[in-house]
Amino acid sequence: GENVEQHPSTLSVQEGDSAVIKCTYSDSASNYFPWYKQELGKGPQLIIDIRSNVGEKKDQRIAVTLNKTAKHFSLHITETQPEDSAVYFCAASVLNNAGNMLTFGGGTRLMVKP
Amino acid sequence: ETGVTQTPRHLVMGMTNKKSLKCEQHLGHNAMYWYKQSAKKPLELMFVYSLEERVENNSVPSRFSPECPNSSHLFLHLHTLQPEDSALYLCASSQGLHDPLEKLFFGSGTQLSVL
Fold first, then answer.
1. Greater confidence, A98 or A49?
2. Radius of gyration (Cα) for chain B, nearest Å?
3. What is the residue-averaged pLDDT of chain A?
């Protein structure tokens, strides 16, 4: 089955700096790669996603890049703010008998210091 | 608010107790999921329901028993749990299962402690 590795597990940056989180996946058939943000006491919420036929997508201060050949994708957050502090999860979608199922990475705890 | 509501938010139970977790979605979705989130582990998919039928059981022990009486409600019945079952249990929903661009909407979870 699909395996998603995420690095780093923790990341501390100064407010205003950029943060980059990287993920690799194993199944070349995966075709959808969402990123979720989980704040303390809440469930994960989708913040951005990318399809396999797109190399990069941007939404204000966040962007995601995908390299299908290398089977890795990354989340970039620019001009970080304290409210960006959270745990971020990458995921990859693979089709099985039941339908499209997401496999999640282990998460990155991002801390933005004011 | 994500449109997915889970109760209770916190639950402490003994190993011999029986309890149930409840999830309700107000999004008109057709698929619902249970995930387990333990410290330092990826989110683990437990069960998937599509149109009230279970379509995925990810090798979950029988002490966890899901129930989906309709497309808006999902329960997780718990009995004779072990301390290692202590975790955050997350419910999620999606429009369907077969759209390759499926988006999951999560509830806030039930933090379960088994003593």
1. A49
2. 13
3. 93
Amino acid at A113: K
Query: Which residue among A34, A46, A105 sits closest to B42, beta carbon to beta carbon?
Result: A105
User: Which of B40, B42, B45 minimises the CB distance to A101?
Assistant: B45
**Chain B: residues touching A (Cβ < 8 Å):** 2, 4, 6, 31, 40-43, 45, 48, 50, 55-56, 90, 92, 96-109
pLDDT tens for B34-74 read 999 998 788 999 999 988 888 877 789 999 999 999 999 99
Instruction: Please judge whether A49 and B98 are an interchain contact, meaning their C-beta atoms are less than 8 angstroms apart.
Output: no
Phi, psi of B104 (to 5 degrees): -95, 140
Contact B102 A32 (CB under 8 A): yes
In angstroms, the CA A107 to CA A89 distance is: 5
User: How many C-beta neighbours within 10 Å does residue A64 have?
Assistant: 24
> Closest to A43 (Cβ–Cβ): which among B40, B48, B109?
B109
**Per mean pLDDT, which range of A2-11, B14-23, B89-98 is the poorest?**
B89-98
Give contacts of A105 with chain B, Cβ < 8 Å.
42
Per-residue model confidence as pLDDT tens digits over A15-39: 999 999 999 999 998 989 999 999 9
* Dist. CA A3–CA A91, nearest whole Å: 9
Mean pLDDT of the A67-72 span: 95
Residue A89, Cβ neighbours under 10 Å: how many? 26
Comparing C-alpha atoms, which of B65, B29, B33 is closest to residue B49?
B33
